[in-house]
């Protein structure tokens, strides 16, 4: 179990580094790596990527609202349209 966690940590750091250097984001590299190197089914790899994106976005959103950089009226209108389109 510890070996798997260490491998995933190394994989995450490597994907984040390459994603930051290339400007593509780590998800472009982490999902295929999870499928190939960790032998995960595609659904689990994509789900893990989505969870990390949601966590990162939530943290950034809190910081932007706290610092006053967010127009909440526009954000609510865009969020309603996003949820409608997703459904």
How are the secondary structure elements laid out?
Layout: H1 2-22, H2 27-36, H3 42-66, H4 72-86
Describe this structure in words.
The chain is mainly alpha-helical and 87 residues long. It has one domain (2-86). The chain has four helices and no strands. The longest helix is centred in the middle third of the chain and has 25 residues, at 42-66. 5% of the residues are buried. The mean pLDDT is 87.
User: Proportion of β residues?
Assistant: under 5%
Kindly, what is the distance between the CA atoms of the first and last residues, rounded to a whole number of angstroms?
Answer: 38 Å
The SSE order reads HHHH
Uncertain spans, ≥5 residues at pLDDT below 50? none
Which structural class is indicated by helix and strand composition?
Answer: mainly alpha
**Number of helical runs?**
4
- The total domain count is 1
The overall pLDDT average reads 87
Radius of gyration: 16 Å
Number of E strands: 0
> How is the biggest beta sheet arranged?
none
Shape: elongated
Summarize the amount of helix as a percent range.
over 70%
Q: Tags for this entry?
A:
87 residues; mainly alpha; 4 helices; 0% strand
How would you concisely characterize the structure shown here?
Helix content is 82%, strand content 0%. With 87 residues, the chain is an all-alpha fold.
């Amino acid at each position: 179990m510890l070996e798997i966690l260490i491998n995933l940590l190394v994989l995450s750091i490597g994907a984040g580094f390459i994603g930051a250097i290339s400007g593509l984001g780590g998800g472009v590299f982490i999902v295929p790596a999870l499928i190939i190197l960790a032998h995960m089914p595609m659904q689990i790899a994509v789900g893990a990527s989505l969870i990390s994106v949601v966590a990162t976005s939530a943290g950034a959103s809190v910081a932007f609202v706290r610092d006053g950089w967010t127009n909440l009226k526009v954000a609510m209108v865009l969020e309603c349209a996003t949820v409608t389109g997703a459904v």
